[in-house]
Amino acid sequence: MTAEVFTARQLEALHDHPYATPVIAVTGGKGGVGKSTVAVNIAAALAARGHAVALVDADTEAPNNHILLSLPLKDRIDVQVAMPLVEPSLCTHCGDCIAACRRNALFLPPDQTPILMGECNGCKACINACPTGALLTRWMSVGATCRTESGNLTLFSGALLPGREESTIVVRALKDRLAAEADRFDIIVVDTAPGVHCTVIAALAGAACAYAVTEPTRVGMHDLGLILDLCEMLAIPARIILNRSNLSGSQATIAPEAASKDVTVAASIPHDSILLQSYVKGLPVVNTNPDSPAARIFTDLAARIEREWLK
Amino acid sequence: MKICITASGHGLDARVDERFGRAPFFVLVDPDTMQHETIANPAMDAGQGAGIAAAQSVAQKGVNAVLTGFVGPKAYAALQAAGIAIYDGLSAGMEVKTAVKNYSDGLLRRSTGAQARKGSPVRGRS
Asked: In A, which residues are within 8 Å of B78 by CB distance?
């Protein structure tokens, strides 16, 4: 399945960003495969090698890179969306706002003023369509972004409020916040949500390459296929990171899957009690046990990223 | 007096469509004269907010009462805001003219609440 969903112009617009700093994405389709573990360790290894690293936790529905780094979440900024607020004295009951709403969220009872009844996504079409300025903008919080500096590493973390559906808007706000100072970083590492939907697409936007983390299980292989398809649609070169690689499972299927998608396996990380302990402790294994086998794998990955993108 | 019956076709011989927001047609009838017109429901294929948009259409036509099978929560709120009476519980096989006659004979009961029959959660955020 390699349907051309996006046109060249759409891809150009999607990947456009106002800075030259290279962006590496860590993704993977399936949840719980170790995306965040890989992301924090790559970021920490790059930081330890002297680079200014921005780590972007774009898994806004369950952000937890700060936990894996034992960092507090600082400098919280609300992410808000616009909702229409009616000023009755200015409303002429013309219905232009009703016609403008693509989600049919507004209702205009005869001779009354519009009522917001449906699912508003904050597009402001109604506010812009109102000829008399009777629709004012009311801001509603849907989530927040945070920014925490720790040595060479700066964590940008986005969180959606539980029950809201604007996760993509929070991802975009997070990336906008990063963009404002992206030029001062040597490299940007983006940790995406699981899945292959809008928030993951927003997180992958602008990435020079994507590491797709998976595990050798049938579920892992299935979801890897989905994320590799998405990367192909988005024209992002992908590489596989096989986590828990010694788990007895579907190792035999990974080579054909990789070959069919023309991607390589960049690293295999065997199950490792030292890595697990670092995860439980909430510190990157590259910092706690830099000589352990898992840490060496992450450091090698960081060195490879350095060679490719930091020359 | 103008009443609206949700229908799968045109005119008084059409069959009732049980849905409100996604009914293909609305037959608008004056029960005293039986004069009628049929309008297409522009919200039938709406991605979102079909109930609200359908209520908007009938409200703009000056309808006083809606006769249908069931009304979802948002459409219910919209119709109530417009002061339009709701009579639900019609079944799909019935002809529009029979529904009108039942209404005129006082056989229909006013709805007591929204009936989102097919599990659409209430997610308004006004």
From this structure: 107, 109, 115, 117
Quote the pTM value. Answer: 0.77
- Taking only the tens place, the pLDDT of each residue in B38-53 is 999 999 999 889 999 9
Q: In terms of CA atoms, which chain A residue is nearest residue B43? A: A104
Tokens (6 digits) for A203:
């997180």
Cα distance from A133 to chain B (closest Cα, Å)? 19
A120 touches chain B (CB under 8 A): yes
Using an 8 Å Cβ cutoff, are A272 and A244 in contact?
no
Whether residue A92 sits in one domain with residue A61: no
* Closest listed residue to residue A261, CA positions, set A236, A291, A295: A236
- For residue B112, being part of any structural domain is answered with no
Evaluate whether residue B60 is within a structural domain.
Answer: yes
Other C-beta atoms closer than 10 Å to the C-beta of B119 total: 5
ipTM over 0.85: yes
Nearest residue on chain B to A86, judged by CA atoms?
A: B126
Q: Within this chain, do residues A303 and A184 fall inside the same structural domain, yes or no?
A: yes
Record the tokens describing residue A216, joined without a space: 């050798």
In this prediction, residue B120 carries a pLDDT of: 42
Chain A and chain B share a number of CB contacts under 8 A equal to 62
**What percentage of chain A has pLDDT greater than the value 70?**
99
Q: Are strands B36-40 and A77-86 parallel, antiparallel or unpaired?
A: unpaired
